[in-house]
Amino acid sequence: MFNKPLPFLYRTLEDKELMLLECFVSKERAATARLRAIEEEEVNVLPQTVSSKVTDKQVDINLIKQYFSADAWQVVEQVLECKLKDPKWTCGICCHDLASHKSVGCDGCLEWYHLPCLKINTIPKRKYWMCPKCNSV
Ligand SMILES: [Zn+2]
Ligand SMILES: [Zn+2]
Questions:
Q1: What's the maximum distance between 2 C-alpha atoms anywhere in the chain?
Q2: pLDDT of 3
Q3: What predicted TM-score, i.e. pTM, was given to this entire model?
Q4: How far apart are CA 16 and CA 4, in angstroms?
Q5: Radius of gyration of the chain measured on its C-alpha atoms
Q6: Above 70 in pLDDT, residue 2?
Q7: Which contacts (CB < 8 Å, 24+ apart) does range 101-106 have?
Q8: Ligand nearest to the CA of residue 103, numbered in listed order
């Protein structure tokens, strides 16, 4: 149906879960989440360093609830609440506030990018646009 990379919507449950887990814990820890529940002290608690994609409307954060201990999940919910109250989207390349330039969202990883950071002038007119990071895997 699609060539790789796949838009987020069409990714497997496993891929979606892994992507969301990596927003809250390290890559290594996300990979072993199935083996051992994530504990409170392992969760990234700084809302500004958690990717805004966790608040994307395509994301169902409850997908990953099963991988956290009850205490750890409370922490995740607090971080989410902070992010929803004060949504700050940053560019996936320069990490600065998205509002400073025109930007485009990746349909694969759900990160957003400034057009100048991508070295393009216009928003790509495609049903699904994939960022350079997604295109390189
Ligand atoms: Zn940028
Ligand atoms: Zn991407």
A1: 46
A2: 61
A3: 0.88
A4: 15
A5: 15
A6: no
A7: 104/129, 105/129, 106/130, 106/131, 106/133, 106/134
A8: 1
Amino acid in position 102: K
Distance CA 122, CA 120 (A): 6
pLDDT tens-place string over residues 60-94: 999 999 999 999 999 999 999 999 998 889 999 99
> Distance, CA 7 to ligand 2 centroid (Å)?
9
Structure tokens at 27: 């890559």
**3-class DSSP string for the chain:** CCCCCCCHHHCCHHHHHHHHHHHHCCHHHHHCCCCCCECHHHCCCCHHHCCHHHHCCCCCHHHHHHHECHHHHHHHHHHHHHHHHCCCCEECCCCCEHHHCCEEECCCCCCEEEHHHHCCCCCCCCCCCCCHHHHCC
Place of tokens 């350079």: 132
Cα(124) to centroid(ligand 1), Å: 16
